[in-house]
Every structure is written in structure tokens, then in C-alpha cells.
Design goal:
single chain; alpha+beta; Rossmann fold; five-stranded antiparallel β-sheet; three-stranded parallel β-sheet; 28% strand; globular
Length: 291
């Protein structure tokens, strides 16, 4: 909260307003629970401020740090050894220097008969037919997305049905002007599985696989936290099969899940290290942030 007070003295439209929080221990002053820090992050993003959190060593609270970064749309990193801090700061400063858009607002308005169910990964607000998401900034060459699951009423084969309109506004960091884009989404009803398969967007389907896999990885971690080690292992095994069946076997994320499965019985500091790496991986997938 003190860092937030300092940066507020220099807030300016068109600048990258970023706090980098480095911690090697527990929160001992100010907000100290994941909920309180999440609230702080949510309030900061409204002011155009993001917080990148860097956990150093094995004694910091990764839940607190990830919650603050997530709610403010910052980055979250786990650095085990002090000698690796330079590369972590190098990545962060590289990101800050490459910001091309800020205050990115995405508004999705679903058509009557279309119900927004949930967003995968990134948090959004849903009010009736309206879905809203905020991204504090975009970096040059970066792709970020919002995956929204919707439920439609049954349609007649061959009928094209409007699904939603999407409006995007952002601050162009080069020109300091607000730009906007607008588009519409529609689908055609079919009873042909072949047409459904042919019409799939492979990039979107791959993103869905990773987001669902991250949810399962998080569930396995929670089960392990509760002492339900065998249940956690079962979830991870299912997750590995899910990744295999969707062609993601030759990926670092698949290997990470396999490593955790082999180490679920570890306790103490070793489990703490594994858990921090799990949260880092989940965060990178859900927020589409750089490793």
C-alpha cells in the first residue's frame, strides 16, 4: 500500500504505471490476506496501475503475491536464488519498455437467447448479457485473449445466429489517443460433426486446452494442500491424459505436470518449492504472461 501511495504522486495518462514488489517473506505490514491484497490489486487497476510480484526464495506466500499481481494485471515470478534476480528484472523492464497499449477495455454484449457462462483463465465481470474485462497493458508482439463460454438456444440447421458484439477500446501509447474497434460474432447451426471439426479454430482450441489443464493443475494442488495426496495424483494423471489426447504431449507444461505427479509425496520445503512453481505456471497460462 505504501508503494501505491508513492506511485500515485506521479500518475500520468500515457505512462506505464507499474509497481514491482519483491518479497522473501510473509506480509508483515498492511494488507496480509489473499483477499485483502486482491482488493488492493483490483483498486489499483482502476487507476491504471499494475503490480508485478517477484517471490524470492522459499519463504514468501505465493498465494498473496499471485493474487495481487492477478487482480492488477501484472506479472508474477518465482526466483529461487538471488543470483537469478537480474534476469527477472531484465524481463520485467523489457516488458515495461515495450508497452504499446494501455487501459484496454473489452466489452462483450451477448444477443438475446445467448447466456454467458464463464470465462476461462482471465477474470471478467458478468452482468446479465454483458461481459467486461480490463487489461492494464499490452506489449509489442504479444497476443492476449479472453475465452468466453456461452450457451445458445437450439437453432435450426443452416440458420446463422448472431451471438455477440465485441467492443474494444485502448490507449495508444505512441499517439496518446484512445482508439476503438468493434466486431460481431455469429454461428451457423449444423448437425454435421465433420463441419464442426472443419470449422474449428485450432489456435482457440489449443488455448482452451491449456486453460482447462491449468484449472486441473490448480485442483490437484488444492487437494495436496488438504492432505489428499492420492486424489491429487489422480487429477494430475487425468490431466496428463487430457493433454496427450489433445496433442500437447511435447510441451514444457506437459513435462511440468509429469514432474509434479512424481513429487506429490514430497513435504516441507521441497513441497513449498514445487507449489511455487505450480502457481507460477498456472499464472502464466491464465494471464497469458511471459515465463
Amino acid at each position: 500500500s505504501k508503494g501505491a501511495a508513492e506511485i500515485r504522486k506521479f500518475l500520468e495518462r500515457g505512462r506505464v504505471n507499474r509497481i514491482i514488489l519483491l518479497s522473501d517473506g510473509l506480509a508483515n505490514e498492511g494488507p496480509s490476506s489473499p483477499g485483502e491484497l486482491a482488493e488492493l490489486g483490483a483498486s489499483l487497476i482502476k487507476e491504471g496501475v499494475s503490480v508485478t510480484t517477484i517471490g524470492l526464495g522459499l519463504d514468501y506466500n505465493e498465494d498473496l503475491m499471485a493474487a495481487l499481481a492477478r487482480k492488477s494485471d501484472g506479472n508474477h515470478m518465482f526466483v529461487e536464488k538471488p543470483e537469478d534476480l537480474a534476469s527477472a528484472f531484465g524481463r520485467e523492464f523489457g516488458n515495461v519498455m515495450s508497452v504499446v497499449a494501455g487501459n484496454v477495455n473489452v466489452a462483450v454484449t451477448c444477443e438475446p437467447g445467448v447466456r454467458p457462462v464463464r470465462a476461462l483463465g482471465r477474470e471478467v465481470s458478468v452482468a446479465g448479457q454483458n461481459v467486461h474485462a480490463v487489461l492494464n497493458q499490452l506489449y509489442g508482439g504479444q497476443t492476449k485473449y479472453i475465452l468466453l463460454e456461452v450457451e445458445l438456444e437450439p437453432g435450426t440447421v443452416g440458420t446463422r445466429t448472431p451471438v455477440a458484439t465485441v467492443e474494444l477500446s485502448y490507449l495508444d501509447m505512441a499517439t496518446k489517443t484512445t482508439e476503438s474497434l468493434r466486431g460481431a460474432v455469429a454461428v451457423t447451426a449444423t448437425d454435421s460433426q465433420a463441419l464442426v471439426t472443419a470449422g474449428e479454430n485450432r489456435e482457440v482450441m489449443e488455448a482452451i486446452v491449456y486453460q482447462i489443464s491449468a484449472e486441473r493443475n490448480e485442483l490437484a494442488m488444492r487437494l495436496r494442500d488438504e492432505g489428499k495426496i492420492e486424489e491429487g495424483k489422480r487429477v494430475l494423471k487425468e490431466n496428463l491424459k487430457y493433454l496427450e489426447s489433445n496433442g500437447a504431449i511435447d510441451t514444457s507444461w506437459y513435462r511440468d505436470n509429469g514432474s509434479v505427479l512424481l513429487e506429490m509425496d514430497q513435504g516441507g520445503a521441497e513441497w513449498g518449492k514445487i507449489r511455487k512453481n505450480m502457481i507460477k505456471g498456472q499464472y502464466q497460462i491464465k494471464q497469458q504472461s511471459a515465463p
